[in-house]
Amino acid sequence: MTVEALFDAIRDSGDVGMSARDATVFLRGHRGVEVDRNSRHASLCAVDSSRFLGALAKVGLIELDTVRRVWTATAAGVDLPRVAAVVTTANGSRPPLLDRLPEIPPEEQGDLVADSRVLARQLRAKAVAERLVKLRSVMTPEQAFGVSAALGVHAVDDWRIWLPSMFPKLFTADFGEHHTEFWDWVWAINAGETCDPFVGIWNRGGAKSASAEAGLVALAARGRRKYALYVSGTQNLADEHVANIGSLLESPQLGQAYPQLGQRAVGKYGASQGWRRNRLRTEAGFTVDALGLDVAARGARIDEQRPDLIVLDDVDSENDTPASVEKKIRTITRKLLPAGSQDCVVIAIQNVIHSNSIFARLGNQPGAPRADFLARRHVSGPIPAVWDLEWAQEGDSYRITGGRPSWSGMGMDACQSMLDRFGLTAFLVECQHEEADLSGGMFDHLNFEALRVTRAEVPVLKAVGCWVDPAVTAHDRSDSCGIVVDGLGIDRRYYRLWSWERVSSPVDTLKVAILAAVEFGAQVVGVETDQGGDTWHTVYQAALKDLMDSGQIADGVRVPRFESAKAGATRLSKADRAARMLADYELGRFRHVEGGCGPLEAGLRRFPAHKPFDCVDAAFWSWRWCADKGGERVGAFRAKAPRGAIGEISAGNIN
Q1: SS3 of 564, please?
Q2: For the chain, first and last CA: distance in Å?
Q3: Distant-in-sequence, close-in-space partners of 446: CB < 8 Å, separation ≥ 6
Q4: CA dist., res. 588 & res. 451, Å (int)
Q5: Which of 282, 227, 291, 228 is nearest to 258 (CA)?
Q6: Which end of the chain, C or N, has fewer beta carbons within 10 A?
Q7: What pLDDT shows up at residue 433?
Q8: Do β-strands 275-276 and 279-281 pair in parallel, antiparallel, or remain unpaired?
Q9: Closest C-alpha among 431, 435, 476, 415 to residue 611
Q10: Which residues have CB under 8 Å from 391's CB, separation 6+?
């Protein structure tokens, strides 16, 4: 964009309060910008120093240290009485030191002029940034970048203008308060210095990963960090994030401002030294590695350098079991964080997807164990998609009736669209950080807090069963899958060890169930097979084989046998089955183990007022199986093992 076009854009956007004269003043003060004096804007360049000060006063830049600001103009020859009049008019009072300008000794004027010119450049850069932020509303991304390039704005140390200038297609909406919190934190990082970790607990759609990825690039571009680890729950997820970072590094705007940062590092003979799926290494000397917690290794290094930036993103999974969460924490605290340099900074960002997750712990969520690592963390959130959300059920769908969006980039229409697409349960979990804790159900009067025990308080268990209520359709009203692990204690109480409810495929659901069964020592994985019939045994075998082939279940580990039951055989409705389980709750025969019963408690509270019912159904089958093992046959129940099944078996014997 030419300077003339810039003037036209500024003049046409009169609502931003910046005249062409003001723009000329700023342009004159910026290095590397020449105005064609033969153009139709030539007269605008003939601005004397008094008008320069007037322009500064107009935008509120004449506040403190007025003498030095005025001295910049004085060096060019200024009528001091006229300057005094301008400044007095702007400030409402005459700065007392202004009258002393002529008294400054000549031998001191050199340093004073130099200092004041530096200050003036900073002030002009600040003014340019502020004005261009306002101009974004009347310019296309291409025009905004043209303006930025004409002014050399990549040198402006203001993230509000730097981000949309470097990534105009990514940063198109206004920033929310939590985004401002994050970018202020990023911009305060200095090379060679550490700072408190940033933990962002933001909603799905809230630009979590986009912010983390762009933040990493910004730290690299500004020379604040040299080597980053981008850590996710799996290597594939981490690779995807690094691929996104590669796209940012290759953007034309960033390449124009920081040419070496977007170029691949090459060796002596021109071979690339790292630009692949899990590593990017630039000519500027910056490197980012992708690392999955499933393959993490102690002391990751690049040459002799330890990472000075670690990003934790998408480390929690909806398929986590208590054991897998603890394993991830051990990997993070014993392998990754100790690998960082002395000045290493940490960005951790994700939504809370279950009550026992790493981010539930980092965010000090109620009911979650408090994380003792990243102890001096700065926590941003939890930030929901909608503050003060209100919703109402309309037939089989749900409608948002109240609240305000947490940022303009995800307004109420977008939130309603996500609610329609995800369903209520998933929307509350993914976008609101809630366990879909609705009320109004038949179990709502129970005090679950009084039922909770620690794992250490669980007695010897006579029987442990893991039961699954599967789904085969694809909507929130019917496609959630539920898993509950129950144990029958020697005290004849039922101990609810763990629960899970998610939208998931049949094979993935069975994998989660098998892993949970192995972890808790369950004798069976049972499936309610009204939908799918005997095919579930085949699905179970396929899931078990995948777990063994991937090494998640080692050879020699005892695995549970498969059993099934049909709801139709009980001749009871869902409500009648739940009512029989409620009777034992009211007799005080249930205990809930801390850290594992959040999904089940939420399901019980809403049953049968709000769907889904899958966790409650799974809880019924798990309870009835345990009752049957204890010799209590309440109602018709018969678990069926597939033909040829032989009790507990070893993983090494599965074909």
Answers
A1: strand
A2: 68
A3: 585, 586, 604
A4: 8
A5: 282
A6: C
A7: 83
A8: antiparallel
A9: 476
A10: 398, 399, 400, 401, 419, 424
- Please check whether residues 514 and 530 belong to one and the same domain: yes
Radius of gyration of the chain (CA): 32
Task: State which of 369, 400, 432 marks the end of a domain.
Answer: 432
Q: Take residue 305 and report the two structure tokens written for it.
A: 């350098």
CA-to-CA distance for 188 and 192, rounded, in angstroms?
12
Q: Give pLDDT tens digits for 363-390.
A: 988 777 889 999 999 999 899 999 999 8
**Are residue 402 and residue 454 in the same domain, yes or no?**
no
pTM over the 0.70 mark: no
Q: Give CA–CA dist 410/192, Å, rounded.
A: 36
Give the position of tokens 């308060």.
177
Alpha carbons 382 and 202: distance in angstroms, whole number: 6
Closest to 313 measured CA to CA, from 327, 298, 294, 293 = 293
Q: Is residue 440 part of a domain?
A: no
| Token pair 């980012």 in the structure block, residue | 288
* Secondary structure class of 627 (helix, strand, coil): helix
The DSSP bridge partners found for residue 455 are: none
Same domain, 364 and 320: yes
Give DSSP secondary structure letters for 201-232. Answer: EE-TTS-HHHHHHHHHHHHHHTTS-SEEEEEE
Residue 639 predicted with pLDDT over 50: no
Give φ, ψ of 140 to 5 degrees: -75, 160
Determine, yes or no, domain membership for 443: no
Among residues 119, 54, 122, the alpha carbon closest in space to that of 91 is found at 54
Half-sphere exposure (Cβ direction) of 580: Cα atoms closer than 13 Å: 19
In the chain, the number of structural domains is 4
Domain boundary among 383, 406, 440: 383
H helix or E strand, kind and range, residue 94: none
Pairing of strands 279-281, 287-292: antiparallel
Residue 495 pLDDT > 70, yes or no? Answer: yes
Return the DSSP state at 589. -
Helix (H), strand (E) at residue 435: none
- Residue 94 belongs to what domain range? 3-159
- Give helix 49-58 / helix 80-91 axis angle, nearest 10°: 10
Are residues 371 and 243 part of one domain?
yes
Residues 378 and 392 in one domain: no
